[in-house]
């Protein structure tokens, strides 16, 4: 009995026992090249004539994670205009995996790296499913002109296979910076002047305005123009180089102090500009120049300081006046309210007894004796009290119209001018009813 398979297949029949055969592979199978085989097995006997029988077998090759993700490009590049809006989409990368199922599921990640000392993840983000790269912040061409972002694609196999690539983001310049004047230096308090002798000829180089623009390309092309001048017929400014020269002969009639305003413009759209003031002294001697410009500076500083102090003094005086006015009005209102409350009060009169007063008959506990003359009416606010000089006897005077009695008050020492002399207290009370006193 013979058994064999059809040709052109990587399989063969192997006999282990009589009439038992094993189908084995002759080479490695690759599912990515061919995932399915139709195998025909033929068995033939040795008789005459020989008889045979066939059997069809379908063989499917299962997948293993033997292929890493593959990018379409080794390096991706894109451009973005500076001052972009955060969250803008920059580029989408894509990788493929010939494996099957979970082994072919690809995820995208940023590889840890730094840009200007900051992690790249603070500038960009990537969608793990789609591979879309977005900018997380507004980019500045003047800080970083190009970003290189390392990215990896990882499949879902076990263990996973990884492939890396690089994404280059080039930032395009925008005209977002005005020119910066380097010379002449603009100082706040002191004046810097260029000297021009009165014997200067036509085309005399007075000075040169130097400016730069941190932008690039045509955005950094600068032009110089004379905007204002004390005498426009005396000076001119080079359009490209910023040189200030005389355009006529200097005469004795020209003023010593010349003030030029030069404007520097770039070539961007829209253009940006900066201005610089150039002070020129037309004189042959330095003392003459010094006196002219020193007086000007001193007067300006003096006027500025005087104005500041006047405004400050006015503010302080106004604040003090308003504060005093509020305080006076508040005091007046408080006193008026207190007087109204006292006038309309209907509270009963409560008598006051001294701390050491005792109601024992004939044995007063006051240390001194005083004479009091008290006049009281039903309206206690109109009562009056008269004080008398100290005496030597104890006196108790009763008003005939009263229904109560007054107790004798005796003290042993005096608290007036003579501490050791006894003092008499004379009390005269005009009381209509005893209930009114209580």
UniProtKB/TrEMBL annotation:
Give the record's membrane topology. Answer: Single-pass type I membrane protein
Keywords, A to Z?
A: Calcium, Cell adhesion, Cell membrane, Glycoprotein, Membrane, Repeat, Signal, Transmembrane, Transmembrane helix
Q: Report the CDD domains cross-referenced here.
A: Cadherin_repeat
Question: Mainly resides where?
Answer: membrane
Residues forming the Cadherin domain are: 11-71, 72-181, 196-293
Q: What is this protein called?
A: Cadherin domain-containing protein
Please give the superkingdom of this protein's source.
Answer: Eukaryota
Residue ranges of coiled coil: none
One Pfam family for this entry, by name?
Cadherin_C_2
Give a GO cellular-component term. plasma membrane
Entry keyword Coiled coil: no
Q: Is this entry keyworded Lipid metabolism? A: no
Q: Which SUPFAM superfamilies match?
A: Cadherin-like (SSF49313)
Transmembrane region(s):
306-331
Task: State where the protein is found.
Answer: Cell membrane
What organism is this sequence from? Seriola lalandi dorsalis
GO MF terms on file?
Answer: calcium ion binding
Q: Which GO terms describe its biological process?
A: anatomical structure morphogenesis; homophilic cell adhesion via plasma membrane adhesion molecules
